[in-house]
Design goal:
- This protein has helices at about 20-30, 40-50, 55-65, 75-85, 130-140, 160; strands spanning about 55, 90-95, 100, 115, 125, 150-155.
- The protein has a 3-stranded antiparallel β-sheet. Strands 5-4-6 form a 3-stranded mixed β-sheet, with no helix packed on it.
- The protein is about 40% helix and about 15% strand.
- It has one domain (about 5-160): Arc Repressor Mutant, subunit A.
- It is built from 6 helices and 6 strands.
- Helix 2 packs across helix 4.
- It is α+β, with helices and mostly antiparallel strands.
Amino acid sequence: MNEDVHACTDPKHHVHDAKGFVAAVERACTSRGLRLTPIRAYVLSLVAHAGKPLKAYDLLEMVRTGDGPGAAAPPTVYRALDFLLENGFIHKLESINAFVACHHPSSSRHSVPFLICDTCQSATELEDAEIVDLLDARARGLGFAPRAQILEVHGTCAQCLAA
C-alpha cells in the first residue's frame, strides 16, 4: 500500500463485524466516561448491521418491530442517534438523509469524505486528512471560519461498474 494513503481509503480496512464494532464503541464509551444505554447500543447495532446507509424511517421501523429494549418512541431513537452522532460513532449522510457506522469508533469526532454509490447505496468512508485540510485552508483563506465539513461524492462503486 502507498505510504501516503491512509489505511481507511482501503475498503478492506472498514469494519464489517457489527458485533465487534458495538464492542469497540462500548470500550470507547468507557474510556471517555460516556454512557451507552441499552437503546443507544441497540440503535448502534442496527446501523452497524445494516452494512449500508440506513434512513431514519427504516431505523424507526426496525426498532418498532425488532427485539430490542422495549418499544422505543421516535424521540428516544432520535436522541440515541444524536448521542451517537455527537460522539463520532456514526455519521449522517446529508444528501440521502441516512446514517452509517463510523469506522473509527475509538477516535474523536472527525470530518471524512464519503463515496456514495447511487446504484447499490453503499457508502465508503475515506479518512483523508489532506482533503479535509485543503478544504479547511481554502475556506480560511477566504476569511471563512469553517465549523463542519460534509463532503459526499455520488457515483458508481467499482463492484457496480464491474457488474
